[in-house]
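Might you be able to check the backbone structure tokens below? Thank you kindly.
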Amino acid sequence: MHIITGLLLSKLFASSGQQRKFKGFRGIIEVKHSMPGRIRFCIPVLKMEMEKGHLLEQQLLKAEAIHQIKVNPLLGSLLIVYDAEKLDEVTLTGVLAKLLGLEKELEKTPRSVLGQELSKVLKSANTTIYERTDGLLDLNSAIALGFFSMGIWSLIRRSSLLPAGISLLYWAYNSSMQSFDESTLK
């Protein structure tokens, strides 16, 4: 297992001698294909937005470095032919973000697919526990109650397999306080 993890991490972080190409911002403004003087973007906010695409085209054509623009509102793609001597991909991406008002989207912290799915599983477990206990428990209070029970049991039995009872009681306290803090903030 450690070998697989090491291989995955080395592949992920290894530099292959080539500079990584700029790919834009996933799900916001993505560079789908580029070569000097020609770039194709995928911009989801342009999907089915003919007016927004037309306004963007008018604004971009004002720049002398841009020669041709083609907006495809069905796919949300944008093809730009430009003078590579005067403009680069990163600058062009920044201009697009500004013109489309996507600065706030770019500032958001991205969440991984695994993180999103794990969040959905935990929300589902929380709802299930809440429904099955008729509102008596939720996931946070069930975890806190579990730590509390194990802490008391550990203090009574002095089991060496479990963490010290006082640690379990502390975890139960922190879990219950976290649950309390979340419920008071809502």
In short: The beta strands are 24-25, 29-35, 38-42, 66-72, 77-82.
